[in-house]
Amino acid sequence: MTFISLVRHGQTDWNLAKRIQGSSDIPLNDTGRAQAETTGRALAGGRFDAIYASPLSRALDTARIIAGHVGLGEPGTIPAVAERQYGEAEGLTGEQILARWPEGAPVPGRESREQVVARALPALRELGEQHPGENVIVVSHGGVISSLVRHVTDHALPGPGELIPNGSVHRFRYLDGELTLDRFNLGPEDRDLFTASVM
User: Fold this and answer.
1) Sequence-ordered list of residues with C-beta below 8 angstroms from that of 70, at least 6 positions apart, any chain
2) Which of 5, 66, 178, 186 is most enclosed, with most CB atoms within 10 A?
3) What is the DSSP string of 117-169?
4) Does the annotation mark 9 as catalytic?
5) Which 3 state secondary structure label does DSSP give 36?
6) What parts of the chain have a pLDDT lower than 70?
7) pLDDT score, position 162
8) What are the φ/ψ torsions at residue 26 (nearest 5 degrees)?
9) What mean pLDDT is reported for the chain?
10) pLDDT of res. 188
């Protein structure tokens, strides 16, 4: 069995302003770097064999900070776990999006959650095949993580209004071609759970 811990990157200025980032390459801010340090320290008690990230700088820089805490080198990049593309909605707030495209209206260029799963899930399965019996960290994005969680839990999680916080950890198990959710929405206060069953 392989454990794959998906981590959401640290905060950016667009996160703070509640602007949709999508494929826009927005860097970490000071708070985001501190969040990455906190998550890295929480993960440092476990044994991890590899670390990967989306190629977007906010994820890759988060992974680099975490790698320093868990004793791993430069993260590999996985383009398939880059954030959901939001097309013409990128850079806008939720209020602005609703004003332009009322509920249910298609946003030009926005990926569906199904399209996100269709690219991200095979990449994680491949990672599971490449790292049998190992413990892997993948730093990704809220849209990708929430889409995967919805898919593997048949929409049981996230719950209504439940967010994927910056720096949070979501651990999956990979076995015989199947990805299942093991732990959801772990924060630094859950330090002991980060390392349970993966020592």
Assistant:
1) 40, 43, 44, 46, 48, 51, 137
2) 66
3) HHHHHHHHHHHHHHSTT-EEEEEE-HHHHHHHHHHHTTT-SSPTT----TT-E
4) yes
5) helix
6) 191-199
7) 93
8) -100, 130
9) 94
10) 77
Q: Which has the closest alpha carbon to 57: 29, 28, 81?
A: 28
pLDDT at residue 149 in the model? 98
Contact present, 21 and 15 (Cβ < 8 Å):
yes
* Catalytic site residue from 83, 90, 111, 134: 83
- Contacts of 195 by beta carbon, 8 Å cutoff, 6+ apart: 43, 45, 46
Q: What SS3 state is found at 8?
A: strand
Phi-psi region of 91 (alpha: psi -120 to 50; beta: other; left: phi over 0): left
Helix (H, G, I), strand (E, B) or coil at 69: helix
pLDDT of 166 reads 97
